[in-house]
Structure formats: C-alpha cells, structure tokens
Amino acid sequence: MDKILIRGGNRLQGKVKVSGAKNAVLPIIAASILASEGECRIHEAPPLDDVITISQVLHALGVNIRYKDETIYITASQLEKSEAPYELVRKMRASFLVMGPLLARTGYARIALPGGCAIGTRPIDQHLKGFEAMGAEIEIGQGYIEARTNGRKLQGAKIYLDVASVGATENIMMAAALADGVTTIENAAKEPEIVDLANFMNAMGAKVRGAGTGIIRIEGVDKLVGVRHTVIPDRVEAGTYMIAAAITKSDVYIEGAIADHLTPVISKLQEMGVAIEEDENGIRVRPGGNLKAVDIKTLPYPGFPTDMQAQMMALLLISDGTSIITETVFENRFMHVDEFKSMNAQIKVDGRSAVIKGNAALKGAKVCATDLRAGAALILAALAADGETEVTGLHHLDRGYVDIAGKLRRLGADVERVVAGALVEEEQEQGLTFFSTHVSPSMA
Ligand SMILES: CC(=O)N[C@H]1[C@@H](OP(=O)(O)OP(=O)(O)OC[C@H]2O[C@@H](n3ccc(=O)[nH]c3=O)[C@H](O)[C@@H]2O)O[C@H](CO)[C@@H](O)[C@@H]1O
Ligand SMILES: C=C(OP(=O)(O)O)C(=O)O
C-alpha cells in the first residue's frame, strides 16, 4: 500500500509551479467529443488519475486519444459507441460529463449511474432536467441512465437550475452546442472552469455567451471542429500550496496561480494575517505574525470553495482562537475531522458546521485520506505537526494532485512517497512523473 511520510517542522522556501486545473481539463476532454472534424490538442493537461479515467471513457467510445508531455491529442471524428461503462464512472463521477456531448453528437447515450460518493449523495437531477427540457427521453434502470433524442436534434430551451451546479452547467452547455436554436441556462454556475470550457468550445466554433455569469446563452451550430487549447492553472492546487506556506510560516512563490480565481481564499488568508503579494505570473506568500481565527462558509463561486475547506481547516487548527466552518455545498464533507483528531486536534462537528479550536499542538500520526482534499489537508497539518505522519488512501490524492510529495520536497519539506515498500524519490527526481507509472495501455 502506497503511503506518504511527512516529518513536520521544516520551513519551505522557493517556487512551486501550479499544474493545469483538473476541474477544467475533465469537461474540456469531454467537450472534444463534439468535434466531428479535426484534432483537439489540449495543453497543460495535468498527469492525474482522473485524466486517465476520462481518457479511458473516450477510448471506450472509440475516440482516438493520446497523452504526451502534458498534451492530450483527441480525434473524435469516429464515434463507435455511446456507452460509458460502470467501472470507469464508478472511479470518477465526472465521467458523466460525456453525456451532454454524446447526446449532441449521436442522439443517444448510455452512462452508468454515478451514484453518491464520500462527500455526499451528489444527485444528477439538474443535468437530466436540462437534457429533458431539450427534448431528450431519459430512462433509468439496471444501474444505467439512457438518454435518446429518437432521431431528432436536441432543441434549444430555457433551463433554470435549482442549484448552481458546476457539472450540470457544463453538461447542458455541451449538449446545447449542436442543438437547434438557443438554450439559456439560468442560475448557471460561475466557476472559472466553466469560462475555460466556454472558451474552448467557442474556439471550436460554438456560440456560448455569458459564461462566468449566472445566465449562459448557447446558440446551437451545425458543427464543431478540433482546436488547440491551454488549460487554466488549478486554483485549488494553488490554494493548497498557499496554505502549505502559511502553515509553515514560509516564503513561497506559487507560479502560475491566478489571483482573480482565488479571491475568496486570498481574502480569508489575509483576514487571518497571512502576507500575500500578487503579480501577473503568480502569488507570493510570506511569513506574517500570529494567525487569527476566522469563520468560513463554503459557497458556489465566487464564494469560498468547498474544495479548499479541508485545507483551510488544517490552517485554522494552528491559529489563535476558535473558528467555525460551515459547509453548505456538500452535506458530508467533514470526514477529515476524525483524522485531524488523531493528530491531536480539537474539532466539534454539529450538522453542517465544525467548531475548530486553535493553537493545537499537532502530533504526527497514522491517518487516511478519506477523499481528495482531505488527503491534501492531512499533509498540510503534518507539515506543522511534531513528529512523523503517515498518510494512506493515496488513490484519492492521485486523482487531483500532480506529485504533491515531490513538489513539497523541492520546497524543503521532509516528505517522501513510499510505493509498495520502495521509495520513489529517485525516480521523481529524475523527472519521471508519477503519471508514467500509472499510464494506461490505451494512452501509452
Ligand atoms: C469535476 C469537478 O468539476 N468537480 C467539482 C464540481 O463537482 P460537481 O459538478 O459534481 O458539483 P456540483 O456543482 O454539481 O454540486 C454542487 C451541489 O449541487 C448538488 N447537485 C448537483 C447536481 C445536480 O444535478 N443536483 C444537485 O442537487 C450537489 O449534490 C452539491 O450539493 O463542483 C464542486 C462544487 O464546487 C466541486 O467540489 C468539485 O470539485
Ligand atoms: C470533489 C472534487 O472533485 P470531484 O467532483 O471530481 O469528485 C474535488 O476536486 O475536490
């Protein structure tokens, strides 16, 4: 079983480069299905397990897909199948994002039900409501969702989302791209990853207006073609390294971080007393004085991101005073609390709120990543803890962080990844990324 070992107490120093955004590249790869001509080249595609999984989904559909040097090459002119199998959708819910583009291209899609996951039940009713409003017939049974247009094109429609869902906004945008007429999504999600998807689609020939606002208008076109696109930097990864710097009272430059995408995180860190400088190429975090407790409520963008909640909790543990975090996006996103408690933290959860006692004397322990961001948060807490922490459950981390152990080690942290009893630093120091050990035959 792989594990990451962290011995806390080191100061960090230097520069860390942010990888391409997981939550942008996944819908962009799905949207490349819309191109009936030409090749899509997606640059700054992070070498992550989730990227492999969605690539395997496209491969299963008959799409030609290759990965080399952080670029993905996709030719979707020949679609052979319209089914995303359970084994792949089970691994990653975002596989469901192929439903919109498949419906638009072929008028039929059969996707395994994504089901719930550790952080919540995560229904897909808003995606389906959108497809139905556009004229698709939906049938659910035997663990699969089937959607069909019965030989007709999808029709433009006005769709109001009951929740500003990121995935539903993206899936409907992609379905609407080749529809007859105009689709309007009201109460659309406004995340930067949605803007990146819209930019990619518009370069392909789509007519998407208003991405990044609450109302998105998509005028259907007859055809989309392959284009080149560079994925935006990962704001959650950037925020995680900002907290790594703050929790170790270090001076770290986070190269590629876009401050505009991180406004709520920067504001909260500044409120706590973290010194932050922004420039056009990145963000510098410098040691400030004692950190103050703050209250945080997670919300859809531009509110405080739920994907930064666990990491922020790690920082609040070593701050002066008591903080309250309210998680409003997912109903069960506090599993990291019990793991933090193993590290000597005092946290009380009451429904959707967690009360965090500051000035914790964190101690190294054996802990398990219960989900992706929980894993990152445990590593952050371990950087400030006394003694050694062992983090397992790394399959979660590998979904969303490119070589987190290597990036932190190069900043001066005492971190190593142990694979099946063997240390892998040597391989990573030689520039062989973790991706190469996980690459699937279809992508090699
Ligand atoms: C691959 C990707 O981009 N993942 C991100 C995306 O997930 P994802 O797109 O799955 O998240 P959503 O924005 O859809 O979910 C937000 C809330 O809406 C609810 N909901 C969603 C869809 C639906 O049809 N019905 C419904 O009730 C969900 O249960 C959740 O409570 O946005 C989340 C919220 O910022 C992030 O945490 C994830 O990292
Ligand atoms: C919850 C997350 O991702 P996903 O939606 O892919 O599960 C995340 O990135 O923190």
TrEMBL record:
The keyword Cell cycle applies. One of its GO terms (cellular component) is cytoplasm. One of its GO terms (molecular function) is UDP-N-acetylglucosamine 1-carboxyvinyltransferase activity. UDP-N-acetyl-alpha-D-glucosamine binds at residues 93, 122-126, 307, 329. It is an enzyme of class 2 (transferase). Residues 7-408 form the Enolpyruvate transferase domain. It holds the Pfam family EPSP_synthase. InterPro entries: Enolpyruvate_Tfrase_dom, Enolpyruvate_Tfrase_sf, MurA_subfamily, RNA3'P_cycl/enolpyr_Trfase_a/b, UDP_GlcNAc_COvinyl_MurA. It catalyses: phosphoenolpyruvate + UDP-N-acetyl-alpha-D-glucosamine = UDP-N-acetyl-3-O-(1-carboxyvinyl)-alpha-D-glucosamine + phosphate. One of its GO terms (biological process) is cell wall organization. Pathway: Cell wall biogenesis; peptidoglycan biosynthesis. Phosphoenolpyruvate binds at residues 22-23. Keywords: Cell cycle, Cell division, Cell shape, Cell wall biogenesis/degradation, Cytoplasm, Peptidoglycan synthesis, Pyruvate, Transferase. Its EC number is 2.5.1.7. Signal peptide: none annotated. It is found in: Cytoplasm. SUPFAM superfamilies: EPT/RTPC-like. The active site is at 117 (proton donor). The modification 2-(S-cysteinyl)pyruvic acid O-phosphothioketal is found at residue 117. Cell wall formation. Adds enolpyruvyl to UDP-N-acetylglucosamine. NCBIfam families: murA (TIGR01072), PRK09369.1 (NF006873), PRK12830.1 (NF009470). Belongs to the EPSP synthase family. MurA subfamily. PANTHER family: UDP-N-ACETYLGLUCOSAMINE 1-CARBOXYVINYLTRANSFERASE (PTHR43783:SF1). This is UDP-N-acetylglucosamine 1-carboxyvinyltransferase.
